[in-house]
Design brief:
With about 35 residues, the protein is an all-alpha fold. It has one helix at about 1-30.
């Protein structure tokens, strides 16, 4: 059970990093226009 929670936590962290990088890329593209 503990390992499952750990896997879920790391997955959420990866998801947050991914969404963060996506929004950063969107902002950079907006600046180019």
């Amino acid at each position: 059970m503990k390992s499952m929670l750990f896997a879920l936590d790391s997955w959420l962290t990866l998801l947050k990093k991914y969404t963060f990088s996506l929004s950063v890329n969107k902002l950079k593209k907006m600046e180019n226009f």
